[in-house]
Amino acid sequence: MSEDRLLRDLGHLANEENKAVHSRLDERWDRMAAGTLTAEEEAELRALAETSPEAREAHEAFRPLGPDFQARIIDTIAAELTQPQAKPEPQQPPPRILPFRLTTVQITRWLTAAAAAAAVLFLLLRIPASMPILTAYNPPELSGGEKKFRGEEVPVYRPGSSLTVKVRPQKAVSGPLDVRAYFARGNEWVSWEPKKEVDGSVRLEGELSRAIHPGDWRLWIVVGRPGKIPHMTEIQERLREGQRKKKYWQAVSADLRVEEQVPP
Amino acid sequence: MDAEDTCELVREALAGDRDALARLVALLTPVIQARVARTLLARRSLLGAGRNVRQEVEDLTQEVFLSLFTRNGHVLRTWEAERGLSLENFVGLVSERHVVSFLRSGKRNPWKEDPTSAGDLESETLDQGPEEVTASREQLRLLLDRLQEKLSPLGRHLFDLLFVQELSQAETMAASGLSADAVYAWRSRLRRLAQKLLAEMSGKTAPARNTRKDGTA
Fold first, then answer.
1. Which chain A residues are closer than 8 Å to B190 by Cβ?
2. CB B95, CB B32: distance < 8 Å
C-alpha cells in the first residue's frame, strides 16, 4: 500500500466516524454541556434519555459539570501555577574552539556578519521595552464628604459634596499609569475630573459634580497604561460585553446614591 | 470573544490572574466535557461495561485541564491563534487525544478488568504483516487512534485539513497560515509517523505504552 494511500484511508475512516458520531450525538448535546439548551430541547433530550441505556448514558455524560466542579478546577490550577518551576539544567561550558588562520574571504564574511549583527542590535536598542501587562485592581473604596449609610452598604452623597476614592492593586505595579473616572446611570455617563495621584495605587479627590442628579449611580474607575485607555464609548461597549479587564487597562466600580441637596 | 481577547485571557490566566482563570475555566469546561464525552461514547465498547461514564467524564475533564496547565502551562502555551485553530478546537483536540490515550494506556484502564477486550485488540495486531493489518477496518481504526494519540494539536489539525477534509495545498496553507514548505514538511511527517505506527503494529514488539507524545509535536 502506498504511503499516501494509507493516510487517505485513515482520513476517510476519520471522516466516516465523525459523521457517525455526529448523527448519533447531534450538536444539542454540546449545548447541553454548555447549559444553553432551550427548555423545549432540554425536555426532548430528557425524553430521549428514557428510551435506551445508551441515551441515558449520553445524558449523564453531557449533563453540565457545574460550578462546584469549576471551583475545584480553578483551585487546582491556581495551586499548580504557583508551584516553583523546575530549574533548567546547568549549561555545559562550550567546547574550546581551536584557533585557525583567517583567510581574506573568511575575514570579509566575518566583517559582513558583524555589520549585520550591529545593525540588528541598533534596531533592537531603538525599540522600547514592552509595556508591562496591568495587574488586577480591587474595587474602589469611597470616603469623605457628606457620606452617610442607610443601613445598607451603598454610600449616600449630595451634589457638590467632597468625594475621595482609593483603588488599590492586588499585586505591586510597576511602570507609568493613567486613570479616568465616570459616573454612570444607565446610558447616561458623566466624566469626573478630580485631583489624581497615581503611583500603582490610585487616589482621586474632588467634588461630586452638580451634573450628577439625585438617584443611584455607579462610579467607574478605569486604570491603564498611558495611551492605552480607550475612549469612553469603547469602554461602555466593552462593559456591556462583560469585559472589565484587558491587557493594559481595567475598569472597577462602586455604587453610590446621590440625594437632593438639603435646602439652606 | 475574538481571537485577540482569547489570547489575552489565556495570557492573564497563565500569569496567575484568578479572575481570568475563572473565566477561562468557565469557557473551556463545556468544550472539554463535550469532547471527552463524544470520544468516550464513540469508543464505548473499550470502556468496561460496569464503568460509570459520568464519573469517567468528570475525571477525564479534570485531567485535561491539568494537562493544559501543568509545567507552567506548557501545552496551553503551544496554542497559536494564527494557525487557524481556535482555542476551543485546540483544547478539543487535546481532550480527544487524552481520552484515546487513556483508553489505550492502561491508566485506570478497563482492559485490565476485562482481559478479553485487551487480548482482542493486541493479539490481532501483533501477528500480521502491514498489508493484513490495514485490510481490516478495525485495525485501521486502531491505527487511526494511535495516530491521533501521537499527534500534537497542530499535527492533528493538519491531518484533518489534508486527509479528512482533503483540502488542496493552497487551501491548507490558507486554513493553517503555514507556508508551502511547512505544509509539505507536515505531510512528510504525517506519512512517516503513520508508517512507523503501522510497522509497530505489524511487528512483534509492542509499542511503548507510556512514552512521551513527542512524535510530531
1. 7
2. yes
Answer whether A165's CB lies under 8 Å from A181's CB: yes
Q: In angstroms, rounded to a whole number, what is the distance separating the alpha carbons of residues A133 and A169? A: 13
Our separate counts of H helices and E strands in chain B read 10, 0
3-state secondary structure of A35: coil
CB contact under 8 A, B25 and A73: yes
Is B25:A12 a contact under the CB 8 Å cutoff? no
Considering Cα of A15, then A20, then A23, then A28, what sign does the dihedral take?
negative
Q: Any chain A CB within 8 A of the CB of B112? A: no
Predicted local confidence at residue B101, as pLDDT: 87
Whether the predicted pLDDT of A150 surpasses 70: no
**Which residues of chain B have a CB within 8 Å of the CB of A15?**
164-165
* pLDDT for position A91: 46
CB B61 within 8 A of CB B29: yes
Percentage of chain A lying above the pLDDT 70 cut: 75
How confident is the model over B150-200, as pLDDT tens digits?
898 889 999 999 999 999 989 999 888 888 999 999 999 999 999 888 888
Q: What's the rounded Cα separation, in Å, for the pair B11 and B92?
A: 19
DSSP-derived secondary structure letter, B49: T
State how far the Cα of A140 lies from the Cα of A218, in Å rounded to an integer.
11
* Burial zone of B28 (CB within 10 Å; 0-12 exposed, 13-18 middle, 19+ buried): buried
Q: Mean pLDDT over residues A170-199, rounded? A: 84
Mutation site, A2, A60, A81, interface B, largest B CB count within 10 A: A81
Mean pLDDT of all residues in A159-185: 85
**DSSP code of A134?**
P
- pLDDT score, position A112: 59
- SS3 of residue A1 by DSSP: coil
Q: Given strand A201-207, what is the order of strands in its sheet?
A: A141-143, A162-167, A201-207, A195-199
Q: CA–CA separation, A133 vs A108, rounded Å? A: 44
A149 DSSP β-pair partners: A155
Give the count of Cβ contacts less than 8 A between chain A and B.
Answer: 153
For the beta sheet containing A215-224, the strands, ordered from the edge strand earlier in sequence to the opposite edge, are: A148-149, A155-157, A249-258, A215-224, A178-185, A188-192
Q: Note the pTM of the prediction, 2 decimals.
A: 0.55
Facing residue for A81 by CB, picked from B37, B41, B69: B69
- Tell how far CA B115 is from the center of its chain: 25
Residue A204's DSSP bridge partners are A165, A196
Other CB atoms within a 10 A radius of the CB of residue A107 amount to 10
Q: DSSP state, A159?
A: T
Burial, B145: exposed, middle or buried (Cβ in 10 Å; 0-12, 13-18, 19+)? buried
pLDDT of residue A45: 94
> Which band of pLDDT confidence, cut at 50, 70 and 90, is reported for residue A95?
very low
